[in-house]
């Protein structure tokens, strides 16, 4: 049996998008499951749309996700080069073969002529399609065009009256009549190949066995199958993954602002790569049998469980709340040190801490992040959640204000101030526990009557993480200042 070879073939026209990442992931998982090879090829022939940093950003984002490749522009491989624009000579050779065999011909129509033809067809209520005007030019007519300085594009001669059947792993049998397919362009007048031509030459020469990509490419597939035939190549297996819909059930567009679209944006916000992978794989795939109900999968499990047959043709809905839930799950499972490393740039950017906290400051930040780790849907939230640690004046919420109006509050607060002032010890969570016990003994207030006012006066909130650790992290000076300020405001 042939080695399984899959590929992800981004055009460097943008950064790695959720849809592209899912395609890459499915291709990658299939190759890894089968012990095959995964290729990343850069399809950069659409030169007007290429962005200077897109190739690098795509590769970086894939690497960050942990999707590694065996062959590509950076590591090379037996089928190099892996950038289309460096393969022009190869396309040229195959184009010549097609022309020589009569499968392709030069077309001298100008843009204006094609546009006029299109408008006329539309006016007649017909689906627009290239008429085939240049199919039957005589050598003399061609020469005349050449002499007039026209540069031809090269078109594929689509055979008449055939039905092309795509055996799609996901969609089953999909049929297309060649009647609806006009002779399409293989090479533009400037010598660059079109996507449909380059992709076939590349997939064939790179010995790709499974082409996994988004549903939007299904209508390109019959054209590609015709090219495989004409070039005498064996076609790969095709698998077209379903569309991704937004919460309103509409096809997700790159301009949709209701969804964060790019992998590097998720990375910046402090989503973890394993959460993104776990989330993406379930956009249109589910495991078989008893695993079907489960939602959390490690990469190794996915490599074991993944199969193209289980990719669904029903559209997948992008559920941002589910992604947050999953990310929270992985954040909770991570070490506090890891989450702290991710949190530091956010806290530093907000001016809360230095850019590279060391020693005691680092320790303090680690404890602070640890205090909120369970609550984080994504790491950037740490800035907002820890806000009250960095305020000079406490801002009391309405609920806190209500608690603080209870009559025992000044008694409790004064007692706590005395306890704090009289202790020499460093304020660890344990010492705080002792101090609060002493306050309880002294005032006779306990439970909610004791802890709620202390929390409200010190943090301005009625809910929050562990109170002792919070007080310990705030430190004696800050806590005293806040308690005293509360009393002053009362007076
Ligand atoms: N460069 C194409 C794209 O980005 C690849 C399509 C394919 O996988 O064949 O959509």
TrEMBL record:
It is found in: Cytoplasm. Pfam families: Anticodon_2, tRNA-synt_1c. Residues 339-486 form the Aminoacyl-tRNA synthetase class I anticodon-binding domain. It is an enzyme of class 6 (ligase). Residues 3-325 form the Glutamyl/glutaminyl-tRNA synthetase class Ib catalytic domain. Its EC number is 6.1.1.17. Its cofactor is Zn(2+). One of its GO terms (cellular component) is cytosol. GO terms for molecular function: ATP binding; glutamate-tRNA ligase activity; tRNA binding; zinc ion binding. GO terms for biological process: glutamyl-tRNA aminoacylation. Zn(2+) binds at residues 107, 109, 134, 136. Keywords: Aminoacyl-tRNA synthetase, ATP-binding, Cytoplasm, Ligase, Metal-binding, Nucleotide-binding, Protein biosynthesis, Zinc. A motif ('KMSKS' region) lies at residues 251-255. ATP binds at residue 254. Binds 1 zinc ion per subunit. A motif ('HIGH' region) lies at residues 10-20. It catalyses: tRNA(Glu) + L-glutamate + ATP = L-glutamyl-tRNA(Glu) + AMP + diphosphate. InterPro entries: aa-tRNA-synth_I_cd-bd, aa-tRNA-synth_I_codon-bd_sub2, aa-tRNA-synth_I_CS, aa_tRNA-synth_I_cd-bd_sf, Glu-tRNA-ligase_bac/mito, Glu/Gln-tRNA-synth, Glu/Gln-tRNA-synth_Ib_cat-dom, GluQ/Sye. Belongs to the class-I aminoacyl-tRNA synthetase family. Glutamate--tRNA ligase type 1 subfamily. Monomer. NCBIfam families: gltX_bact (TIGR00464), PRK05710.1-4 (NF004315). HAMAP family: Glu_tRNA_synth_type1. This is Glutamate--tRNA ligase. The lineage of its organism: Bacteria, Bacillati, Bacillota, Bacilli, Bacillales.
């Amino acid at each position: 049996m042939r080695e399984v070879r899959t590929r992800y073939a981004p055009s460097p026209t943008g950064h790695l998008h959720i849809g592209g990442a899912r395609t890459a992931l499915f291709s990658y998982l299939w190759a890894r499951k089968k012990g095959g090879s995964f290729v990343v090829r850069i399809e950069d022939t659409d030169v007007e749309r290429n962005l200077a940093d897109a190739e690098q950003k795509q590769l970086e984002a894939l690497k960050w996700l942990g999707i590694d490749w065996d062959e590509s522009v950076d590591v090379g491989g037996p089928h190099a080069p892996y950038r289309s624009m460096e393969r022009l000579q190869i396309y040229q050779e195959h184009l010549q073969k097609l022309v020589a065999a009569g499968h392709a011909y030069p077309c001298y129509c100008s843009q204006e002529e094609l546009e006029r033809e299109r408008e006329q067809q539309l006016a007649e209520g017909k689906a627009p399609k290239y008429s085939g005007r240049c199919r039957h030019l005589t050598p003399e007519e061609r020469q005349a065009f050449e002499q007039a300085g026209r540069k031809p594009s090269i078109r594929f001669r689509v055979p008449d009256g055939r039905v092309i059947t795509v055996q799609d792993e996901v969609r089953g049998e999909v049929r297309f009549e060649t009647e609806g397919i006009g002779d399409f362009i293989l090479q533009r007048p400037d010598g660059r190949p079109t996507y449909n031509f380059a992709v076939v030459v590349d997939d064939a020469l790179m010995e790709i066995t499974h082409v996994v990509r988004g549903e939007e490419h299904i209508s390109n597939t019959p054209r590609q199958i015709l090219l495989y035939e004409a070039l005498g190549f064996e076609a790969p297996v095709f698998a077209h993954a379903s569309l991704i819909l937004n919460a309103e059930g509409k096809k997700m567009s790159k301009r949709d602002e209701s969804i964060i679209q790019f992998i590097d944006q998720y990375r910046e916000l402090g989503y973890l790569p394993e959460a993104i992978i776990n989330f993406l794989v379930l956009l249109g795939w589910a495991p078989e049998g008893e695993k079907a109900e489960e939602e959390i999968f490690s990469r190794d499990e996915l490599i074991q469980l993944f199969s193209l047959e289980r990719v669904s043709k029903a559209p997948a809905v992008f559920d941002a709340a589910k992604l947050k839930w999953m990310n929270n799950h992985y954040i909770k499972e991570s070490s506090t040190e890891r989450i702290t490393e991710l949190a530091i740039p956010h806290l530093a950017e907000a001016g809360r801490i230095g850019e590279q906290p060391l020693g005691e400051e680092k320790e303090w930040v680690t404890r602070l992040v640890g205090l909120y780790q369970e609550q984080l849907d994504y790491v950037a939230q740490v800035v907002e959640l820890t806000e009250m640690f960095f305020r000079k004046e406490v801002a009391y919420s309405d609920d806190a204000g209500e608690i603080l109006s209870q009559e025992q509050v000044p008694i409790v607060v004064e007692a706590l101030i005395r306890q704090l002032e009289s202790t020499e010890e460093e304020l660890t969570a344990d010492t705080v526990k002792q101090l609060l016990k002493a306050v309880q003994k002294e005032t006779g207030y306990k439970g909610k009557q004791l802890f709620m006012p202390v929390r409200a006066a010190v943090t301005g909130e009625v809910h929050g993480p562990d109170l002792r650790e919070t007080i310990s992290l705030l430190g004696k000076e800050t806590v005293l200042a806040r308690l005293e300020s509360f009393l002053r405001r009362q007076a």
